[in-house]
Amino acid sequence: MNMKKNIILLAALAIVVIGVGGYFVFNMAPNGAGVEQNEVVPNVPAPVASEPENNEPVNVATSTAAVSTPAVEAEATTTDNGQEVIGKSVESRDILAYHFGSGNKEILLVGGIHGGYAWNTALLSYQMMDHLKANPNAIPTGIKVTVIPALNPDGLSKVVSVVGAFKASDISASTAAMTAGRFNARTVDLNRNFDCGWKASGVWQNKIVSGGTAAFSEPESAAIRDYAKAHKITAVVAWYSAGGGVYSSSCGNGISAETQTITDIFAKASGYTAYKNFESYQVSGDMTDWFAKNNVPAIGVLLTKSNETETDKNLAGIKSLLDHYSKQ
Questions:
Q1: Cα(142)–Cα(41) distance, rounded to whole angstroms?
Q2: What is the structure's pLDDT at 280?
Q3: How far apart are CA 324 and CA 294, in angstroms?
Q4: Can you name the residues that pair with 147 across neighbouring β-strands?
Q5: pLDDT recorded at residue 65
Q6: Are the C-beta atoms of residues 307 and 169 closer than 8 Å to each other?
Q7: What stretches in the chain show pLDDT beneath 70?
Q8: SS3 letters across the chain
Q9: Which of 26, 103, 243, 319 has its Cα between 20 and 30 A from that of 145?
Q10: Residue 24 burial by CB count (10 A; 0-12/13-18/19+): exposed, middle or buried?
Q11: What are the structural domain ranges in the chain?
């Protein structure tokens, strides 16, 4: 009888030991319950902290889980020397603007719209820049002068062998090359590509020239358009060649009072004759007329000859405009 009780007690004890051991095997196993000791537990990644609940978008500016990345600079940036790339030509040359002074009234000077054909307008622009660099006090307080010396760099490259500022002695090209240099690399006359009376076929002297496939179809004209839209331009002077004279701008709405004022001021100081309209032949898609359409006073200054810059005359005209706007 006693032996039978002992056997029963031993059996009960065995059951208890097996039960406790099983508990430890199953519940104390690493990496979760129910995993046997010899099973390899996968390394499950933790939930991503930047993943919001309910699949809502992450606000990168405020999320602590957002990855910090370097800021990307805009393409049009101004360097320490006041040089800014405002666009690219058809052949991917930089279209550059140079800034002098830091006022709220911005006077825009534009040369080289007809590239190599009117290389003297680009050279004059560089000469104006040299003067402003050497005489920073010539710019009155409150005024900024921006110079775009070569709006048509591809056309200019056909007759000028150097990039950037050049001298008259750097010009060595045939008349045919100079004529070809009037147009951009898609043979479009850029001064027929602006949105004022634009036509696909424009006129130059007695020739038919391309005005592009649409107003601002060319990257060069689009570059100055975009620059003008991004800035509050006070007045514009554009240089052309040749013929002589200061021409007011308008676009079917008459010459504004301020445009007439700066036409007369520039003409009086420079000695050029002032004209209300260009009447030698009809011009469509003109740049200064587009500025007028957008209520920006603009004048076109035609240099008298195709191989001279008439620096002193134009410097006197620019000084007179700076003086005019310093008093407003």
A1: 73
A2: 85
A3: 21
A4: 98, 109
A5: 29
A6: no
A7: 1-81
A8: CHHHHHHHHHHHHHHHHHHHHHHHHHHCCCCCCCCCCCCCCCCCCCCCCCCCHHHCCCCCCCCCCCCCCCCCCCCCCECCCCEEEEEECCCCCEEEEEEEECCCEEEEEECCCCHHHHHHHHHHHHHHHHHHHHCHHHCCCCEEEEEECCCCHHHHCCCECCCCCCCHHHECCCHHHHHHCCCCCCCECHHHCCCCCCCCEEEECCEEEECCCCCCCCHHHHHHHHHHHHCCEEEEEEEEECCCEEEECCCCCCCCHHHHHHHHHHHHHHCCCEECCCCCCCCCCCHHHHHHHCCCCEEEEEECCCCCCCHHHHHHHHHHHHHHHHCC
A9: 243
A10: exposed
A11: 83-326
Q: Which CATH class is domain 83-326?
A: alpha beta
The residue type at 278: F
Q: Report d(CA 60, CA 63) in Å as an integer.
A: 5
pLDDT reported for residue 81: 63
- Measure Cα distances from 222 to 51, 89, 114 in Å: 42, 10, 15
Output the CA angle 78-80-81, nearest 5 degrees.
90
Tokens encoding 93: 């040359």
